[in-house]
Each structure stands twice: as C-alpha cells, then as structure tokens.
Amino acid sequence: MPAVSRLHLAQAVRVLRGGGVIAYPTEAVWGLGCDPRDEAALARLLALKRRPAHKGLILIAAAIDQLTPYIQPLDAGQRARIGDSWPGPNTWLVPCRSGVSPLLRGAHATLAVRVTAHPLAAALCRAFGGAIVSTSANRAARPPARSALQVRTRLGAGVDYILPGALGGARQPSTIRDLASGALLRG
C-alpha cells in the first residue's frame, strides 16, 4: 500500500477513535462510519443521516473475528453459510450479544454485519483494529453518494474526514439476508 494511503488510513483511524464520523468508499457506494462502541458518535451519525434509530446500522469488518464482540456465537452450519458469502457485498442479520447499543442494532435482536471485500474498507477495519459502522453516505430516503464530492456536497461539515479512494465496482448496495430464515431482505 502506498505511503499516502497509510497516512490517510492513520488519519481516518484518529478521527474514528476521537469520536468522529468518516466517509469511505465501499463495494458500491460511499459509506459513513464511526466507532460502533461510541454512543455519541452513533448518535451524531444517525442525526447526520436523519435516520431513525429504530432501524439500526450495519457493521463491516476485515474478518469475521472482528464481529465477535457484537454477535452471538455461531454454530458450524451458520458459520459455513455466512463464510461462503464473505468477503463480499453480502450483509447478514445475525443475533446480537446483549449489551449491543440500541443505536447500533435498532429495535432488533439482530445486527446487520458484513466482511467487506473492498480492499480499502478492509484495510480501514484492520488499521482501526475492529469493526466499524457502515451505512450509506446520504440523508435518509435520498440516493447514496457515489463520489467524495457528493459526500461533501450532500453532508457537508457533518463528515469529519473523507478517506480518499475508489468504489469497488458493484452496481447495487450489499444484499441483506436473515441468518435464521435465509430470507433475502434486500437484493
């Protein structure tokens, strides 16, 4: 990875650890992220998006182990089912651990999680040392940003840092499936 990318990653991590909201490229659209353990950052992100807290948010990770603090242990069958779709643009609703913030899980007993295939987003999770929030960079019910310029124009100073990079080439945001039923909720 070029030195400039390491510098940008380090700055993004500093902002995350400082309670900030960042924007970064994902497989299909620009994402907004924050530290999923920081209640104030979660509240800020939801307010910026104008997203109702009951809907919940998605976590992305570089590896499934980064999600274990947030989700219930998976049996071998569940782990295989999810593992076959990761890394990739496949989000799963998985039962979450007790104590996971309602700002993160919404009004649900599940949490939306994904191991990303986007190299920069995965590098960000590795540099941060864990999963981060990933929700599309847009106001609720508006089209997601597909460029850094759209992030800045649409969300302004509410975003503390924009991690430079390119989208991954997928045309649509990730699919969302329920682990318990296998039902496709967004495709």
Automatic annotation (TrEMBL):
Reactions catalysed, as given in the entry: L-threonine + hydrogencarbonate + ATP = L-threonylcarbamoyladenylate + diphosphate + H2O
GO cellular component: cytoplasm
Domain of life: Bacteria
EC number: 2.7.7.87
Single GO MF descriptor: L-threonylcarbamoyladenylate synthase
Cell location: Cytoplasm
Enzyme class: transferase
Keywords: ATP-binding, Cytoplasm, Nucleotide-binding, Nucleotidyltransferase, Transferase, tRNA processing
One protein family per Pfam: Sua5_yciO_yrdC
Domain YrdC-like, residue spans: 6-187
Database matches in InterPro entries: DHBP_synth_RibB-like_a/b_dom, Sua5-like_dom, TC-AMP_synthase, TC-AMP_synthase_SUA5
Keyword Transcription regulation among UniProt keywords: no
Single GO BP term: tRNA threonylcarbamoyladenosine modification
Free-text function comment from the UniProt entry: Required for the formation of a threonylcarbamoyl group on adenosine at position 37 (t(6)A37) in tRNAs that read codons beginning with adenine. Catalyzes the conversion of L-threonine, HCO(3)(-)/CO(2) and ATP to give threonylcarbamoyl-AMP (TC-AMP) as the acyladenylate intermediate, with the release of diphosphate.
Family of this protein: Belongs to the SUA5 family. TsaC subfamily.
Protein name according to UniProt: Threonylcarbamoyl-AMP synthase
Source organism (scientific name): Plasticicumulans lactativorans
Name of the gene encoding the protein in the UniProt record: tsaC
